[in-house]
Amino acid sequence: MHGARISLGIGLASVAFAMVLGVTLGLLAGYVGGRLDAFIMRVADVQLSFPAILIALLIDGVARVALGGERHEEIVIPVLVLSIGFAGWVQYARTVRGSTMVEREKEYVQAARVIGRRPLAIMTAHVLPNVIGPVLVIATIHIATAIITEATLSFLGVGVPATQPSLGTLIRVGNEFLYSGEWWITVFPGVALVVLVISVNLLGDWLRDALNPKLR
Amino acid sequence: MILEVRGLSVQFPSRRGILTAVDDVSFSIAPGEVLGVVGESGAGKSMTGLAVIRLLEPPGRISAGEVRLEGRRIDNLRHEEMRRIRGRKIGVIFQDPLTSLNPLYTIGEQLEETILTHLPLSKSQAREHALSLLREVGIPAPEARYANYPHHFSGGMRQRVVIALALAAEPRLLIADEPTTALDVSIQAQIIALLKRLAAERGAAVMLITHDMGVIAETAQRVAVMYAGRIVELGPVRDVIHSPRHPYTVGLMGSIPKLGVKQDRLLQIEGAMPRLTAIPPGCAFNPRCPRRFDRCLTARPELLAAGTSRAACWLHAPA
Amino acid sequence: MHLLSLDSVSRDFDVSRPWLNRVLEREPRRILRAVDHVSFEISKGETLALVGESGCGKSTVARLIAGLYAPTEGHIAFSGSRLQMIFQDPYASLNPRWRVRKIIAEPMLFLKVQRPVEQFLLQVGLSADDAERYPHEFSGGQRQRISIARALAGEPDLLICDEPTSALDVSVQAQILNLMADLQDRLGLTYLFISHNLAVVSLVADRVGVMYLGRIVELAPASRLFSSPRHPYTRMLLDAVPDLAMTGKPRTPVAGEVPNPLAPPSGCSFHPRCRYATARCQVEVPRFSDGVACHAVEEGRIPI
């Protein structure tokens, strides 16, 4: 149970971070356009050519080296959150950028400009509420992915250490005991992980349907 | 008569019950004649046109009435037969030339496809026919443009191509739904003149659906004014425009700004056309009518004789 | 002292293909001159209309004045305190996520004194409790009224109206045009009215500017423009308007189409469609003088 809590906690936190980062960059890229847009999108493109796991591994690895073993253990969870978050911001940015570019041309945005609102105010007060819908749906599904990513990292040994085990860590640790009779150390966290991920996916499906005005 | 419509009604079910978008509509069009069908948004004019050619989107359906093309009923044909008639005997021109043409095929290919589907011609004969059609609709140097794609043409030229396509199989009936609305006024004038000429030359019947009374004035001989799914006035264009008999038509004509007529304020009809879910009993126009009386609230008027036109208004009831 | 004056204002847009495509295919940059040395003034209390067909630049002029674009050349001088704008599309000009109250209150964020939102709703013929609703609960005509209320809340000296009734039914248009005329009488507003509909313009405008491919070709008081148009394009436009009065007047057939604004004809851009065009018209851009820019008029070649 405690392991599940850590897994879920890391999942939620990294998604929240990815969402804030991605939405912000997407809004900026879509609204400001020009060179800023080109730059952000190129960074996104480059990042997309790497699997998320590798990116998370990279950031985590850098952190380990930079902070040294002990320091790293203390703040391993925030580092994990950041690395999984950095691995996943691109999908939010892309979606938001596309919607922002559409909304930017609409006349209510131009009206706000004529009224004299600043670009930042327009982005947050006008555009953001109109582009945020799909983001929430992506986020719930992303939570499941984040949890699995964390589990994978921990299983590989580069995630949460055994002192504060997440489900992945437990699976890894339990793996060693698999054939020695204490199989449940691996299997139960494994089952818990599956149940957690399925629940989150179902939540995402429900949310998508609930937010769809055509189905009301 | 090429087209005869009697008692046509179109309904579709919705969450709030069955809605009647077209309610007991009757009219006819003779060869070479242009009938204008005018009304504001929601009046049902496009639905009427779609019902005639059986292109209603389900769950909308014809719930009553008959449609006869050259004497033969077409409202109850099977889909296969209707499909053949639609291309061969009926040509359709929609509002947006951009989406009426397939962007992936040249105009030559699209014309030939239509011609070959409906007429027993060889490929080279079809090409000749296509070229002559393009000439007829005023595309300069058609041989050179034959292999062009739709996006190579301007809006007005595209609409001409659409008209050529509609005429390709030598239809008896042409239905034009807002054919000039998306075009600039100078191009509009050219397209209007083209439609008029083609109808007269080919003896085809034209059903011209539009919200623009000016286009009707230029093109049509008779006009049907629609409101809330019903025809409220039907008569010769000149008479309906200059001496309208139905209070709605009076209001409509008064609210159109006219070039060269100095006015301070336009005539204003209070309120708005009722939604399909809230059509009042009796005469649908009665809540907004400055001349209503008791009978209007309870009984729905049919088209009654009123001078040279007919108007669905109890003011014209025989005394 | 005019409320608004434009001095030889031009605006270019770079519509070149993306840099990589251009480099690989060796294409030059493509610049679209949407507005070409446009000059005019508006006095307080009057309604100036700009008419023209698509691509003539009238909407771009509106946006230049509103500050949505900056002029590439030339100068815009506004001597009033505030200007507001109403747009064509009633469905896109109001934020669908905001209540009407917030929409109308927005311009007042920049004013010292905030008036009650209900006041403006009543002024445009809506009711006070409409303030709590969302835009999608209103019809097109009502939404335009909300847009007008929002503009009024900003206490503008100049109101720019970009095709405000083009998307509305004719009877709704009549209501909105009447409303705008009433407001002008009561509040002393000044309007810049952009439209492609000449009949509407003949109703609302004191002076009219006719635009073609980014230039003003004729600028005259409305009464004069409609009774005795001078520029051949103005004549052609007026001829092309469907004749509702059915006078059966003979009409000169309209020639050709508006050329591609990316590659406008040389000299006077109207010359390919003009029956009075001479060699000079193909080479020399006509100067704007006495309200019209046309060689044939200048040379007295056009019968009145």
- In CATH, what is the class of chain B? Alpha Beta
The total of helices of chain B stands at 12
Q: Please identify the structural class of chain B as seen in this structure.
A: alpha/beta
Ranges of chain A where pLDDT stays below 50 over 5 or more residues in a row are none
Explained architecture:
The complex is a heterotrimer of chains A (216), B (319) and C (304). Chain A is an all-alpha fold and 216 residues long. Chain A has one domain (2-215): MetI-like (MetI-like fold), CATH 1.10.3720. Helices cover 83% and strands 0% of the residues of chain A. In chain A, helix 1 runs parallel beside helix 11 (184-211) and helix 6 (90-104) crosses helix 8. The longest helix of chain A is centred in the N-terminal third of the chain and has 31 residues, at 2-32. Chain A is elongated. The two termini of chain A are 37 Å apart. Chain B is α/β, with parallel strands linked by helices and 319 residues long. Chain B has a single domain, classed as Rossmann fold (3-Layer(aba) Sandwich), CATH 3.40.50. Chain B has an 8-stranded mixed beta sheet, sandwiched between helices. The longest helix of chain B is centred in the middle third of the chain and has 18 residues, at 185-202. The two termini of chain B are 33 Å apart. The mean pLDDT of chain B is 90. Chain C has 304 residues and is an alpha/beta fold. Chain C has helices at residues 19-25, 58-66, 100-105, 117-123, 140-153, 170-187, 198-204, 222-227, 232-240, 279-283, 295-298; strands spanning 4-14, 31-42, 47-51, 73-78, 83-86, 158-162, 190-195, 207-212, 215-221. In chain C, strands 5-6-7-3-8-9 form a 6-stranded mixed beta sheet, sandwiched between helices. A 3-stranded antiparallel beta sheet of chain C has the order 2-1-4, covered by helices on one side. In chain C, helix 6 links the parallel strand 6 and strand 7. In chain C, helix 4 (117-123) packs across helix 5. Chain B binds chain C through residues 40-41, 154, 156-157, 184-190, 192-193, 211-215, 217-218, 237-238, 241-242, 251-252, 254-261, 263-269, 272-273, and chain C through 53-54, 139, 141, 169-175, 177-178, 181, 196-200, 202-203, 226-227, 236-246, 251, 253-254, 257-258.
